[in-house]
Amino acid sequence: MSREEEDDEIFQAENLVNCTPNPDCPMIHPCVDPPLCSNCQKSELSFFDPNCPGCQEILLRPTTAIPEIFAILRQWTPQTQQNIEVLINQILEKGANINDRDGLTDMTLLHYASKAGASGVGDAEMASRVVTMLIDKGADPFIRCRWTNMTALHYAAYFDVAPVIKILLKTTKAIDIDNTCSEFDHGSSLHIAASNVAYNAVKVLLQNGANPYMKDDLGRQPIDCVPDPKNFDEESEMAKLATKIRKMMPEAGPVSPNPCSPIFDPTQSRVTLQAMGLRLGDKVVINGSKSGALRYCGPTEFAAGIWAGIELDEKIGKNDGSVGGISYFRCAQNHGN
Questions:
Q1: CA–CA separation, 310 vs 160, rounded Å?
Q2: What is the domain range of residue 284?
Q3: For residues 124 and 161, is the Cβ–Cβ distance under 8 A?
């Protein structure tokens, strides 16, 4: 072992020792590598396998740290994703806060669980069970990954985990169904699902009121994000699903550009934002202390002038995006300002 490798191991060990979990306060766990048993280390494709007796023994050790189990969660293998329940339960049993984050991906346990039901890799039934458990224990469905700007709903839409989408929308009363994601040109969950040919996700989102006419930063409606079926082999499953999604979109009932706000003028809002060098969805800070995402910019019925609506990161706001019975945008109660 070189001196550099030895120093790195010491530094990593000190990080794990100093990383004390606190169930009352969310934290970001340091980035480490997943542990491996001796047999898995010798294998041609070495990764932590929860089905391996040697790896199971490591997982259940009191000395195995939370960051190491987060590192296991990052493995996109059927062995890992189909054992998501065991892994997340181990993290919680070791004292993690329900909203702790992985230091490498900035994802929470709910983020990981929401995508763990992906077809061909994970188990949708298990993912749904874990998502329900996490929400019952207080997991916040509105938290965004700081790297991808995605919420749990965005992850479930991307990976086509329809049962999880239903649980998340029931939990939030679907107020976040059209929330955008900057990683996808400020498209909604429906844009994300359509672009990834996630048929079941598209179907569930439309059934729950997702706006099929909403446009992203590139001026695209969700139907415009569906890949051309001609790009796939004519008889392939992807071609068939893309065709079905394209046919499904026009069947949704027509909605206004913002069905919640009858006074919303998208042209005026766009001009105002361009003048300020901003766009909807941008991160903003209010009075140097409150941070959140810009969700509305335009006139209001409660006062003259141009007003901004902010979805705050923390539950320290005044409303859910509605003032005086008029909804200017939608967010969780006390997250609006």
A1: 29
A2: 266-327
A3: yes
Report CA-CA distances (Å) from 219 to 187, 215, 258, 259, 329: 10, 5, 15, 18, 20
Is residue 198 a contact partner of residue 160, using CB atoms and an 8 Å limit?
yes
One domain for residues 140 and 278: no
Write the pLDDT tens digit of every residue in 217-264: 898 999 999 999 888 887 889 999 999 999 988 765 544 444 444 344
Asked, for residue 308, whether it belongs to a domain, the answer is: yes
Q: Is residue 84 part of a domain?
A: yes
pLDDT in tens, 251-268: 655 444 444 443 445 445
Q: Which two tokens stand for residue 177?
A: 């169904």
Counting the structural domains of the chain, the total is 3
Residue 287's CATH number: 2.30.30.190
- Whether 213 is covered by a domain: the verdict is yes
The domain spanning residue 197 has which CATH number?
1.25.40.20
**pTM of the shown model:** 0.72
Write the CA distances from 59 to 68, 78, 93, 120, 152, integer angstroms.
9, 17, 12, 25, 26
Answer positive or negative: Cα dihedral of 63, 68, 73, 79.
negative
